Amino acid sequence: MLQKSRKITFILAIISAIIGVMLTVQLRSSLHPVHKESRSIAELRTTLQKELEKHKNLLADISKYNQLYYQYETSLSEDESISVMKEELARTRRMAGMVGMEGEGIVIDVVDAHTPAEPVGDGHMPVPVVGDYTIDDEDLRWLVNILFANGAQAVSINGHRLIATTAIRNVGDVIQIDTRTIRAPYEIKALGEPEVLLSALKLEGVEENFQLANKKVLAEKRDKLMISANNETRVIQFMKPVKQKGDS
Amino acid sequence: MWLPLIGLIVGLVVGFLLDWRVPQEYSSYLSIALLAGLDTIFGGIRSFLERTFNVRIFMSGFFFNTLFAAGLAFIGGYLGIDLYLAAIVAFGVRLFNNLAVIRRIVLSKWINQQE
């Protein structure tokens, strides 16, 4: 009898040990759930690629500014500092769109897709014949922002150079850039690394988006592209030069 | 009587040391199995107090109930039926029943002792 009861307690002990393990496992998994990644690999890869590109651009920026800083610091002679300043001024002019620029880049043509009745995609759903869909300011702004975000040095739409203060907006039925009306077909030129810009357009799904508005996006690489200066007259209203002590 | 308690503590310690974690989608199966195990434990205590305790019934009940409960929940997951809810309800009701019986027996024993 005694042996039997000892056996029973032993078995009970083992079972309670099992229960204890189960309890702790359950407690742990409910306190710190195993994080599961729900995004697909392709999506993650796209995100990673985007982030890497951004990272590269930022690093390039940092090294550029570091170099500039170094140049300012080390330019001992007057001549040199003036030349650095001139260089900087030229760079600023370029960025402000006051001078024309030339280099490699891409040209994007947004044209009407000529076959609206033909089914696009899987062929099951007929694409409605679209006459009303047009692209508006937002689409163009989006496109231009993609270009700038991926390192475009200068962008122009239908010959209008975009600068920091440029507005693209709908006025009535037409799109205006600053105060000039532009009409389809839109031609967007961008200076920058063609491969980067083209892949950025693919990544963001520009083509699909414009397809919704029944437009075709034709992007092509150009080795030599000229973008003229911004020729708007700018009215400076609130800016004043700073007078400092020692200024001559 | 102390051995089961020590066993429980050892189990808890081992569980903490092992650092096993169950993915969230399997967590419900483990909880069902845990519930079944607890149910069996309390059933065992009850039968022990009623002097009808049988080791074989207890052991088989523990393992079969846990495995069956987890398995049923798993199959239910595949069929799209929330069978684990049924298991939760059934085991929960039994758990409370067993607890009530245990409480009565312990109370009546205590009162008998006092008189």
Automatic annotation (TrEMBL), chain A:
It comes from the Bacteria. Pfam families: DUF881 (PF05949). The keyword Transport does not apply. Gene3D superfamilies: Protein of unknown function DUF881. The chain crosses the membrane at residues 7-27. Keywords: Membrane, Transmembrane, Transmembrane helix. The keyword Transmembrane helix applies. Belongs to the UPF0749 family. This is DUF881 domain-containing protein. It comes from Brevibacillus brevis (strain 47 / JCM 6285 / NBRC 100599). The lineage of its organism: Bacteria, Bacillati, Bacillota, Bacilli, Bacillales.
UniProtKB/TrEMBL annotation, chain B:
Belongs to the sbp family. The gene is sbp. Pfam families: DUF1290 (PF06947). The chain crosses the membrane at residues 29-45, 57-77, 83-102. Its main location: membrane. It is a multi-pass membrane protein. Keywords: Cell membrane, Membrane, Transmembrane, Transmembrane helix. It is found in: Cell membrane. GO terms for cellular component: plasma membrane. This is Small basic protein. The keyword Membrane applies. InterPro entries: DUF1290. The lineage of its organism: Bacteria, Bacillati, Bacillota, Bacilli, Bacillales. It comes from the Bacteria.
